[in-house]
Structures are given as structure tokens and as C-alpha cells.
Specification:
mainly beta, 16-stranded antiparallel β-barrel, 4-stranded mixed beta sheet, about 15% helix
Length: about 575
Amino acid sequence: MFKKIISCFCIYWIIHSSSLLAQEDFLLSYQVSGAFSKSEQLAFRDSLERASFIKSLMGDLYAEGYFEFRVQKTYEKRLLSLQIESGPVFNGISLDIRPVMEVLPMALGKSLGSTVSKSLSLQAFQDLRLSILGVAEDTGYPFASLQLDSLVRTNQDISAQLILDTGPKITFDTIRVVGDSKMKPSYLHKLLDIRVGESFSQRKVTNAIAILQAIPYVRISGAPELSFQNSEATLYLPLQDRNLNSLDGIIGVLPNELEGGRLLLTGQFDVKLFNIGGRGRDISLQWQRFNQFSQLLDLQAQESHVLGSKLNLTVGFSLLKEDTTFLNRAFKAGFSIQLNPDSQLRFFSQRQASDLLATAGLAELTSLPEVGDFRFNSYGLGHRLIKVDDRFDPKRGWSTDLSFTIGNKVIIQNTAIPVDLYDNIDLRTLQYQLQGQANHYLKLGDKLTFFQRLAFGTIENPNLFLNDLFRLGGLQSFRGFNENFFFANDYIYLNLEPRFYFDRYSYFMIFADVGRFSNQVQKSPVEYPFAAGLGFRLETQSGFFNFVYALGGSNTQDFAFNQSKIHFGYTGRF
């Protein structure tokens, strides 16, 4: 009976071993004995993966102070066996690092000399070891290892030379997309700054994951993987596209201020397309009608990594028609640089033209009107910083966006206005503009998030017109008022909005908006508007349904139910 058991066990072991050899090409068996003991049997997909584990094992011994460990290797087909004698443990070490400097000169930088004469603690030695290996990993040697040579023991301390074994030189191969994402590998190489044939860098791989996590229109659906074959590294990225493209229509029901007792339908239509063709191209279109005669059109387009560079090119055109008073047109072009996954620096130039529409009766004026004709050529600098948990629907974190614009403003003399009214003003002046916004998301539990926004802006020029000023009010800025209700040369406002999530992207919310607006062109008293209301967002299979009910009060609008604003609409995602 005992012989049968032994025979069955041997047969099972042979079959099991054969199965292992068939499935896994490279096996490792190691045993550490002495003051430090450990043993294990492992299987690996390739020899480089096995070498990486051995390197990590040796590093653990160094970190624990076992500087005199001895290794015996034996090979049997695909099996590598290691017999490791740990040796005694040491308290510190004095190093000669000239051999490392000869192999990898940039490993230690200019601040550290070619030798370390003083004794290093175990922690200091570990920090030095990790620093050297980190540089090796970022210069094409991810399997580099460190060894001690010429050891001299003095009590519990040791002096030695530090030897660097770089291992094989590894270069980047192509990036492979695993999943249903339409992102092109050629675009990913530019986006992640990983070029085929360049030296492998672990830092670039780590940064690549952070960059992809910061892109709202794609998500990483699993753990990225690296495959090392023929001294080349292939990065496999499991990516899935998010339904972030949107088709958004909102209808506003407002009291008709020109026809008492009747309602006025206003509207907004937005189209946003992201990552067109999987190459990082974005396009947006916005149209608004915020009163009976006023309309807004805004077009934006962005091309990422122009000509293979790190620059993103942006162009845009906007048109604003303010009833029968004036018409503003602006063309904007610029470029941006992604400093890191969370930070973006942008530069832009803009040409703005504004003209009067209604000129009847202007010949009788004794002073310049509030609205004027002008041309404004400006240059600007902006910076955006985003630190949130989810770019698609943040629930925790914060973001900031700041821009500064400066340029020459030229006032155009309108032939319908008496010429002498322009005598006492400077037709060419310097004008600057500063705008900023900070958003904060405070997560107070699994279902409650407190959203806060602080926004501000200022325009400075000795000859400001009404058509120069910021336009505020409406669903996207200060709720409870018509779209673009306020004119302001200086503003600051705060949005406070607790959100209760009853589904992943669906929530109920209440809000309060408070602000301070000034309008020096019309010499109006400083406004301190306030608003309050409630609403909800409901996620559907193909988008979101939005509803907001708001009340607002200011110097020119009563905080009353007959002045309430209702905004509702549907945002389709595809």
C-alpha cells in the first residue's frame, strides 16, 4: 500500500512538473539560510521577469544589512536554483562608488563626490541604492543590480566597492491598446512622450498612467502591463472610451419683460466632441438665445501635439449680438503645454471687434454713448491646475484656472457721432483683463458632496464701453437671473451647492449664490446679488436630464416667485 502511494505521488509530481514546464518557460527555486532564512519556488513568463525578481531579492538582503551573502547558482533546463548564505548582519558601511560612476556617470549627480568615506547607516545605504537603481531604470536598464566587492570587515561595520551590473539595454517598442478604445497608438506615443527605439524609462511609464488618468474621455479598465522581449519593452494599455461627447439642449421659461403677462422662451444648444478619430482633436459649438433679440455663438477647436510636438493648438470664434445695440466678434488662437498630468500652461492672442448697430439719433448727442466702436488686439497667459478624483464627475479635490490678458485698444470714430465728442479722449490706450476661478469638491460621505466655486474678474482701461464688460448671470455663472443679465467691469461671486447622490452620476442639489458686481460705465450702484434654488440631475441610458429652479434678487430684480427662473434640458452622451 505504501509503495502504491509513493508511486502515485511520483506520477503526480512528474505530470505536475511537466505541466509547469509546458505552461511556464522559466522556473526559480531559491533557499536563503543563515541569520536570515527564506525559501520559495516560483514560475515566470520570461527570463527578464525572473531576473527582475532576483534583483529585488538581493536588494532585500542589502536593505536588512546582509552585505556578505553568498550565492550559488545551478541550472537544470529551464529551472534556476539559488542557494544563498546570508552571512552576518552589519550596522553600517563605507563605500567606494567610483565603479558606479564609471558605468553610469549621471547616477549620483554632481553634488556627491566619487567616494563616500564616512560610514552610512543601513537606511542611508538603502536610499543610495534606490537612487542609483532609479537612474538606471530611467536610462534603459530596468534590470540593473548592485553588488558589493572588495569587502573589509571591521567589527560590525564594513567597507567595500559598489559595483553596478546594468543588465541588458532595453528600448521602447510600440504601445498596444487593449480594450474598445479608438485611441490611435501613434497619438498615444505623442501624448505619453514614449518613442519607439528610445531607451526604456520607468518614470515615463509611471507618468503615462497618470496622464491617462487625467484624460476625461478615456479610462484605464485594468492594470497596464509591460512585456520584455528581444531587449524591447511593449506597453499594453487596457483602455475604454467614455461617453463624453455631448449634445445638450436647454430651454428657459422666463417672464417677457417687453410684453407684460407673457412668457419668453430662451434656449441653449451645445455640441462637444472629444478625441475625434482617436487623435486628441476636440471641437465644441455653443449657441444661446438669452432674450428676445440677443444671441451668442461660440466655436472652439483644438488639435493636440501639432506636428509631433508637445504643443496643443487652439482656435476659436465668438459672436455676441446684444439686441439692437451692438455686435461683438472675436477671433482667438493660441497654444498650450501640458506641464504635468494636472497642470497646463497656455498662451493666446485675440482680436476683438465691436460695432454699434443702432445709430439713429446719435448726431444729437453731447457726450459719447455708453456703447462704442473699437478694436482690441491682445495677448494672454493662462494656467490651469486640476487635482480631482474624477475628471468626468469629480466628488473630491479642487481645481483652479487663471488668465491674464493685455493689449492695445483702438477706439473707432463712428460717423454718426459728432467728431468733436472724440476730442478729449485718447483713441489708443492699454487695456488689461484678469480672470480666475477656483472649484472645490468636499466629499462628506458616500452620497454627499459639497461643491464650492469662487470666481472673479476685472477689466482696467480709462475708456471702457458697455460692450467691453464681462457678462454674468444664468445657469453657468449666477443662477436666478436671465443669461448675461449683468454688465460688470469688476466681479466676484461664490456658488455653494450641496449635492446628494442617489446614483453614480445622479443627484439632488440645493444652492446659494452670492456676489459683488460693479459697473463703472453706467455709474450704477454696486450690486450685491444673491440667489437660491434647487434642482436635480438624472442619469439615463444615453445622457442626463437636468432641472433647476432658481430665485434671484438684486438692485434691479426682486427676490420674488414671479421672477423665478426654470431651466431644464437633456444632455445626450455618445
